[in-house]
User: Which sequence fits this backbone?
């Protein structure tokens, strides 16, 4: 917590100072997704609804660097931290879909700006899933599976942020200037961080763990009947990013872009109608990260 506090304070400043597009839930969003997933390893949560299996919890613990102390959430923003060092990875955080179409297709849309196929967040989820499937099968793995775990955990979060699957010409809302209450920002950032931050301030006394607790309670309560359908993947598939990407572009059109223009001021009405969407996507991201790790590690 000591390390995250100054980072959380700095993050909005850094993001608004950078002209470059930001891609991903903010630090809080990623923390929430990973914490929900890993909470499913605690016997305390005790859900028959598919928590992290013992095998998956053990593999995660084994693959995490020792300084993480077995805590996956502490490294769920690692992929953002290395975006510049591993420049090749920056295209792997999102998907650009055709303007105004409100649909996603892997073959049509999963490519980077040079048109290289498979280089998008859905391709990356498939890539790191298949790398992790080799866990325990070789003494000298071809890939660094610690990095594969950290990328996968981050990208399953990202693909649930509706504007990570957004329109090409506005770069998922990165070029749409808006005011969030009185503060100047871009629409993409509203969905990465502002909605979460405002909810956190207004309802949880700026304590993300209270927010996570409420989501976790809803996963076992309010949403429990939907949870097994969230977890489901196609026949025999280990990861199913295409389902999540389609949901995201649909939510982007129905909620994120809807009613927003250049220089819109977004405040209470937008906040209260969109927060349930953010809550749902964070919860689904956490549940599906756990489900995917279970399918990978058995
Ligand atoms: C936990 O699991 C046990 C045994 O499966 C069950 O009896 C108990 O009601 C569960 N507790 C909660 C809080 O769900
Ligand atoms: C795991 O790390 C996160 C982020 O640093 C922190 O908020 C959380 O309290 C940690 N969880 C545990 C069980 O230590
Ligand atoms: C797959 O993973 C490798 C190792 O990190 C990386 O070099 C490659 O760019 C990745 N490709 C995709 C599409 O994720
Ligand atoms: C794998 O990646 C992690 C994180 O970047 C790094 O700390 C570790 O040294 C790497 N392992 C190997 C064998 O290169
Ligand atoms: C949890 O569910 C309650 C009851 O439907 C709802 O009012 C609340 O907004 C939900 N909270 C979160 C964080 O999802
Ligand atoms: C799915 O997996 C099961 C068990 O591994 C196998 O028997 C079945 O043939 C597979 N189905 C398809 C469509 O690949
Ligand atoms: Zn990201």
Assistant:
């Amino acid at each position: 917590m000591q390390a995250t506090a100054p980072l959380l304070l700095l993050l909005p400043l850094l993001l608004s100072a950078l002209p470059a597009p930001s891609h991903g839930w903010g630090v809080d969003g990623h923390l929430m997704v990973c914490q929900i997933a890993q909470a499913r390893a605690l016997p305390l949560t005790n859900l028959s609804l598919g928590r992290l299996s013992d095998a998956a919890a053990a593999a995660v613990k084994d693959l995490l660097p020792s300084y993480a102390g077995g805590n996956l959430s502490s490294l769920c923003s690692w992929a953002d931290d290395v975006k510049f060092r591993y420049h090749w990875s920056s295209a792997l955080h999102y998907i650009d879909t055709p303007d105004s179409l409100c649909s996603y297709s892997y073959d049509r849309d999963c490519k980077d700006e040079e048109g290289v196929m498979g280089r998008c967040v859905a391709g990356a989820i498939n890539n790191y899933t298949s790398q992790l499937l080799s866990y325990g099968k070789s003494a000298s793995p071809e890939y660094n599976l610690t990095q594969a775990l950290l990328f996968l955990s981050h990208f399953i979060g990202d693909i649930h942020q509706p504007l990570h699957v957004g329109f090409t010409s506005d770069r998922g809302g990165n070029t749409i200037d808006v005011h969030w209450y009185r503060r100047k920002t871009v629409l993409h950032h509203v969905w990465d961080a502002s909605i979460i931050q405002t909810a956190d301030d207004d309802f949880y006394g700026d304590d993300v763990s209270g927010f996570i607790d409420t989501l976790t309670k809803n996963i076992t309560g309010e949403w429990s009947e939907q949870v097994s359908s969230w977890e489901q993947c196609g026949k025999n598939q280990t990861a199913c990013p295409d389902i999540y990407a389609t949901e995201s572009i649909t939510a982007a059109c129905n909620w994120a872009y809807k009613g927003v223009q250049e220089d819109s001021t977004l405040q209470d009405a937008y906040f209260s109608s969109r927060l349930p969407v953010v809550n749902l996507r964070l919860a689904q991201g956490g549940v599906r990260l756990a489900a995917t790790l279970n399918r990978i590690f058995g």
Q: What stands out?
A: The longest helix spans residues 268-297. Residues 1-22, 41-50 have pLDDT under 50 and may be disordered.
